[in-house]
Design brief:
Oligomer: single chain
Number of strands: 10
Helix content: 40-55%
CATH superfamily of the largest domain: Homing endonucleases
Shape: globular
CATH architecture of the largest domain: Roll
């Protein structure tokens, strides 16, 4: 269910009409996206910045999330001189809602980057939020190495964050589902090293970003003789 945002002085306000969602799995995933590649740098706009090439399909998905949650079709613009696409949610009402529900204005790291408490209260919401985080600030990778002249390909997953608290929260949620996280890279990365752990992650958390599955499918298909 959604509610229409109410304005104190609607006849004087230029705020656009939006819908504000209740807490849900979809909202939790969107918060994961915002915690990953999102930002709120002014009172009237929230942005999600994604790779213009690797995340081209995911940009469409994030735009659909914005419409499903807030009734807004966000404009998408290419950042000048960079391979980046910016999905912009231009609404003071939406920004106020996001902040009230746990996101920070300005510098995310300085203001304490963490999963909001309301998400931590539900297993489904924890899963959805981590999915959004990994889909933005994570990747699946193939590591090739040689042993006795024979080439082997191992699959792995990496999630990166400069927030120790957020990294610890994600590690705890993974452990809850019997997925063993390895924190390294000066405490900025979570790695899943075994194919069993990566497969378990995808089975439980899934991904809404085609980039994630494309690498996994490439590795899996290469193993088929």
């Amino acid at each position: 269910m959604v509610i229409v945002a109410k304005l104190v002085h609607p006849e004087k306000s230029h705020r656009k009409k939006v819908t504000l969602p209740k807490h849900s799995t979809v909202l939790a995933e969107f918060f994961g996206v915002m915690l990953g590649d999102g930002g709120i740098n002014n009172p009237w706009q929230a942005n999600v910045t994604l790779n213009a090439i690797k995340d081209k399909e995911y940009v469409v998905y994030v735009s659909k999330l914005c419409y499903e949650l807030f009734g807004i079709i966000p404009p998408v613009r290419k950042r000048k001189g960079k391979q980046a696409l910016v999905v912009s949610l231009a609404s003071t009402t939406v920004v106020d809602f996001l902040v009230e529900n746990g996101l920070s204005r300005g510098n995310k790291l300085k203001n304490g980057l963490r999963i909001p408490q309301w998400i931590l209260g539900s297993k489904k919401w924890r899963v959805a939020c981590v999915r959004g985080l990994v889909d933005t600030d994570g990747c699946i990778f193939i590591h090739k190495h040689k042993v006795a002249g024979k080439t082997y390909q191992n699959i792995g997953l990496c999630f990166t964050s400069y927030s120790p608290e957020l990294l610890a929260q994600v590690a705890t949620i993974l452990e809850e589902f019997l997925i063993i996280p390895h924190i390294s890279g000066q405490g900025r990365n979570i790695y899943l090293y075994s194919e069993d752990m990566v497969a378990r992650y995808l089975k439980i958390f899934g991904s809404s970003n085609a980039r994630v599955y494309s690498v996994y499918n490439e590795w899996r298909d290469a193993r088929v003789v």
